[in-house]
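Known limitations

Structure tokens in this collection are predictions and should be treated as such. Users comparing against experimental data should check residue numbering before alignment. To illustrate the layout, the record for beta-glucosidase is reproduced below. The input appears on top and the generated tokens appear beneath it.
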Amino acid sequence: MGANLPLYLALLAGIIPWSTASSPPLNTRDDGAFSPPYYPAPNGGWLSDWASAYEKAQKVVSNMTLAEKVNLTTGTGMFMGPCAGQTGSALRFGIPNLCLHDSPLGIRNSDHNTAFPPGVTVGATFDKELMYQRGVELGEEARGKGVNVLLGPVVGPTFRKPRGGRGWEGFGADPSLQAIGGALTIQGMQSTGAIACLKHFIGNEQEMHRMSSVITQGYSSNIDDRTLHELYLWPFAEGVRAGTGSVMMAYNDVNRSACSQNSMLINGILKDELGFQGFVVTDWLAQIGGVSSALAGLDMSMPGDGSIPLLGDSYWGSELSRSILNGTVPVERLNDMVTRIVATWYQMGQDEDYPLPNFSSNTLDETGPLYPGALFSPSGVVNQYVNVQGNHNITAHAIARDAITLLKNENNTLPLSTTDSLKIFGTDAGPNSNGLNSCTDQGCDNGVLTMGWGSGTSRLPYLVTPQQAIANLSSSAEFYITDSFPSNLNPNASDIALVFINADSGENYITVENNPGDRTTADLYAWHNGDDLVKAAADVFSTVIVIVHTVGPILLENWIDLDPVKAVLIAHLPGQEAGYSLTDILFGSSSPSGHLPYTIPYKESDYPSSVGLLDQAFGQIQDDFTEGLYIDYRHFLKANITPRYPFGHGLSYTTFTYSTPSLTTVTDLDTAYPPARPSKGPTPSYSTAIPNPSEVAWPSSFSRIWRYLYPYLDNPQSVTNSSSSSYPYPSGYSTTPKPAPRAGGGAGGNPALWDVAFAVDVTITNSGNVSGRAVAQLYVELPTDTLGVDAPSRQLRQFEKTGILEPGESQTVVLNVTRKDVSIWDVEVQDWRVPVGREGVRFWVGESLGDLRGSCLVGGGCEGV
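Generated tokens:
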């Protein structure tokens, strides 16, 4: 989340509380929710892929003053620059104020940018090429606007809670889908020189009560070690392996320790086990302590403010300078913080002609205050209106089109003809009645739903609505852009009703129609009485087609089995290309090829009770992840509950046949555990002497901007080095490095985890009469008897989408399976373990979890289903 005026006003009003103190010591808790300490913070630079960047960074950092080092770790304050957040600079070395800015789907609060479909829509395409290309174009637009760090992609939350407000920002309700989507996005973004920021690390699965206040702490996501590794950490490990330059910490606690100062999460797992070489940054105002967060491995504070923003106070900034001078934060820790930031800057090539910000997220006016958060600010040109869209509308259109998921199509009702007599109902087909972008951060449900609301949004440069697109193709179409069904309508037998409904959600600093981010009021039903609109149409029309724009799972039971309801399309969240992407499918210029990235249940009670929203007035909410590995389809399989539509479901206008798959062993898994990890390479070394206090003295004749956060102290000579015994360090704090974790050794973990162990080949043939694309999905079934632990009976591990297949045309796809894909996390050994003998592992291949076409058994054979 980046800085914005609605957020700050909500903070002041008490709608969103702010933090004033760190959590009590965790070792006093005896209820089992405990995050063990892990100190000291591992230094970066030991992986060969980053060696050159770290070598360059070391040369710079070794010559920096204390003020310059602190400057790069601390934001300049909320509204103290053009971006959601910006660091201080080190101009002697050519390092400007680094711009960190939203969002994962486009440049937020800007102009002349593309509003791409969000992650959930991208996930529904199951198209790796589009995932990567969208990443490239996001990076190009970030670079074009002068954004150094684009705050995305999102791989947490992961739809653990179907009502959770921000699941739509990620790629779906499966860790492998999240991992593949996130990794490809990172690779695409960073190919342009922009730095990706993988978020939110970790366990942020609902919006309500995620932050701390003077009377309560943000909720604690209490997650066991195996669940953490196999489910929630899985996509972050892939993102680290993809080379993400930064990782954002979540607001909530994990196992009773705030993420921003959770040493086990940052030092132990992210930096040591996963070998993360970039820098760790807070979510906005998520920092709740200074020394504690530095020791726990945090590298950058955003937007830099302390517990109450816009007062000129910070946990770091001048206070970090003081902590270095008095010895409470080791110089070595600061050096690593800065080196990680500078090395990432070099790693992405931002030292070579990377643009400065040419826009302002604070205003669309050409001129304005340079530091809007200051009481008095110099003014100047803040918006240069640089158009970064290029031809990115092509990719945005392709994603929106190829994500559209056909749930039902009785009697081949779809596709339509442009000469059909069409009657269109629902405000979701039309424009925002108050005008394009009239709602801050898309914080309303008015007109076609293109994205959820919050910091993960973008202004729409334009919007082609379904109404406009249908009207352009069908001169006879009639439109009723209302959520109340007309009382005097008498359709002919040949008339076809298209009913548009939606379901919205977003971030908790905006409440929309009594939904504070999470879907508290609307439940999982359509908004604006959408179910009643469908039923009313079904009462008078013999053919009804329902188009649903939704942030996630939605209940359809009030009308799905009504006889007139012949076809249903889930159009997800289409971004700026809502209209023509839909008409491509409606009128048959393309066959639908989207698949559900989550399960649609018959009723909400089909989910485990532990994934409901939690709410209480006082005290810290303990969100116990007691369902373990069993979220979404994994739960439905275990509980033997049939969903309305299974994960991966998606029909086409054509049909596909699958050959019996074939299985090849690529790498013999001779041992239950991976080979020994590679040893760490060398890391930069610096003097550990405490700097001269004069390095953070205010420069002479310096003109201060009030509320701007600086690294300087009024009287630095008075700060004395204190004995470590006099400071109340966190429980378990030590300066003695821990042994390297056996599961580590490379980016994302032990490199052997990504050895391809098996290859499953299957030939897919278009057996229908029109062209189309198929998605081969591979699910792993592990032998729980030989593992000695329970495991989900099916786990998505790989997918491949075919090209456009003409009738009768075939394509063979290869689905590679890695060692990690067939492993479980051994909590005792702290490593990934494959089944003894590796036999008994079965691979299932099909069109969806509910339409499996064949399987292969390791040590056995392959067969069709």
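For this record: The radius of gyration is 27 Å. The CA atoms of residues 5 and 147 lie 20 Å apart. Please report discrepancies through the issue tracker.
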